[in-house]
Amino acid sequence: MTLSIWRYSHLTLAIASFVFVFLATITGIVLAFQPISEQMQPFKIESVNQLDVDQTITTFKDKYPEIINIEVDANQFVSASVITADGTSLNGYFNPKTAAFLGEKPEISVFFKFTTNLHRSLFLKGIGRFFVGLGSFLLFLIAITGSILIIKRQSGIKRIFAKVVNENFSQYWHVVLGRLSLIPIIIITLTGVYLSLLKFDLISEKKQKHTVDFQTTAFAEKQPDTNIFNTTRLTEVVNLEFPFSEDEEDYYILKLKDKEVLVHQYSGQVLSQVDYPMVTFLSNLSLTWHTGKGSIVWSIVLLIACLNILFFIYSGFKMTIERRKNKALPKNKFTKDKAEVIILVGSETGQSYALATAFYKGVIANGKTVYISDLNSYTTYKNAKQLVVFTSTYGDGEAPVNAKNFITLLKSVPQEQTIKYAVVGFGSLKYKAYCKYAQMVDASLQLHPNFTPNLQLQKIHNQSQSTFKDWLQQWNTVVGTNVSLVLDNPAIKTKKQQTFKVINKTLLNVDNTFVLQLKPTKKINFISGDLLAVYPKQDGIERLYSIGKMDNQIVISVKKHEFGVCSTYFNSLEKKDVVNAVIKPNPTFNLPNKTKRAVLIANGTGIGPFLGMINTNPQTEKHLFWGGRTKQSLSLYQKYIDSGLQHNTLSSFNVAFSQAQKEKIYVQDIVAKNQAIITQVLKDDGVIMICGSVAMQNHVLEVLNHISTTKLQQPISYYLDNKVIKTDCY
Ligand SMILES: Cc1cc2nc3c(=O)[nH]c(=O)nc-3n(C[C@H](O)[C@H](O)[C@H](O)COP(=O)(O)O)c2cc1C
Questions:
Q1: What pTM does this model have?
Q2: What is the CATH classification number for the domain harbouring 683?
Q3: Pocket (CB within 6 angstroms of ligand 1)
Q4: Which of 58, 213, 524, 547 has the fewest CB atoms within 10 Å, i.e. the most exposed one?
Q5: How far is the CA of 729 from the CAs of 536, 607, 670, in angstroms?
Q6: pLDDT (tens digit, 9 = 90+) per residue, 652-677?
């Protein structure tokens, strides 16, 4: 697994803080409901913000002979402590407009108290508080390293909110939700750290003291028209303590958010004012922002941010496990100067290592001396005759992490002899800059006087093994080797299987292809485009077949391969035999119900799912394009196509035979001739579905790209991103 410094830091921090972050997040989710439940209590009074302190004091004084204090909390609930005319003491919430007693303050529930303790200190007192504070700081660093990773992934800070390509569920949502919850997470963590520092007295709040000199201060007999009480809104008050007695030297203590003021009880004159230090302001702000007190909206934001953190823990570890499967490159048996074949690999997340390693082993098994390394380690190779470069593309057409220096090194490192080379690019058609870095490497090698190409650049979509095998055949031919690939078997699946009865199986046609019809023995919901997963007894490895649905039956088109375990098994089936398999929904390759128009493009057995689609959804106008070898190849599917045309569920059928005439015609050629249909479908929010070989898909996409850029001024990536073009190729 290749790791950049930022990804390494992000991962290490996540592992180091996992336990604390997990506990703090779970308890944080619960505690986010506390301010929400407080706000739901019936103590909020309409338009309380219109009252000033003077009005409130008058209202309370009219109703009660003695008032001890009035408080306004973050929810803007007004509470007070008063003595009534009959000498009863009342403590609780009041209506500030009428001074009516509303009810006692409810006790905080035991559950919230327990959760708060767990959240603050894990019941470990000082040590616990320290670790929670540290966890908060580590989470802050995780958010920062995560942001750097997103910026690098999106190729720059300006593109941070640009569209993210959805290749993998965990990766996609990790990035999308990471961007959205970045600010709330930074606020939660920084305020958490601040509150911890405060608890440990690492930040101290030093308040100034009041000084009042009654000897030298002369007070007005009568209150002036304006004083601090009638210029201060009640909602600005935190606490107002009433004078202890009627003695002139007893005063009001008015605590506001930013200052504490002593006020003369008769004149309303300010006797002393102490502004709170910045620390107090920040402490109050931290508490409000960390807890969400007083704001349902912010509490919900905090709740969502905590739920997102839980998802990041899950998706982050899932991605790490997936990436760990992409082991490192193999250990070299030969030195760089002894080897005839040099393999250089560029990879960001290690996916390309599997094929590069299989190739390395294959070449060694062929008796050649081989040396494998990453592209950044490019150096002199005294005995090299062949260079093979495997590289992915990352960011927006950029080099993967272990290949960033290759092009510079290529220019500066002198080679003594001439070396033949071939470049294989791993990428994804979902990106505009498809295999761009491989293209740059190929171009740089072309310009180098010591390198001559023995094959054209090969681009490979989604690590397709079949395209890689096709490339390997060509390489074997030009180099004169017989390298074959032994790929690690994916994990054997042990899913609960469903049973299907064989309704019909055709004989093999000229292309060794047949059609199999299966019927589920129990009711199963599925549609054309879903996948049938089969796990043959010999190896238990999952094989996926794209299926068509007709009359509640499954239609699959299969090509029998000489050593194909599953295709041989399917071909051995007879009517009424029972097959164990699993139907997997494949929503990315189903024909949307409401689509007005659809173009279905396939070659060979890729027509399978379309055999169902062309016989259903009569409301959708469908145009089928199919490429096969000869007219006889078509006979297998003729009855399905005729039925679609007869019942008007298929509007047109366009066929290309590659072997029927002198000039080879492929499906992409007939697509290119029907630009009007393609343009109309792209313009009218229709869909284009492609099923078959990856090689065909690449050619068809090139043609579609030409049509979309010339007729609609949009690159094909736009339609792929917006799922107007759907592909299921192998
Ligand atoms: C963030 C990101 C950016 C990518 N950018 C491109 C790109 O610009 N062009 C491309 O063809 N493929 C792109 N890909 C696809 C990868 O090249 C492809 O998944 C490849 O198989 C990864 O192999 P690796 O793990 O060995 O790096 C990108 C993938 C990711 C996750």
A1: 0.66
A2: 3.40.50.80
A3: 153, 347-352, 392-397, 400, 426-428, 431, 433-436, 463
A4: 213
A5: 22, 11, 19
A6: 999 999 988 888 899 999 999 999 99
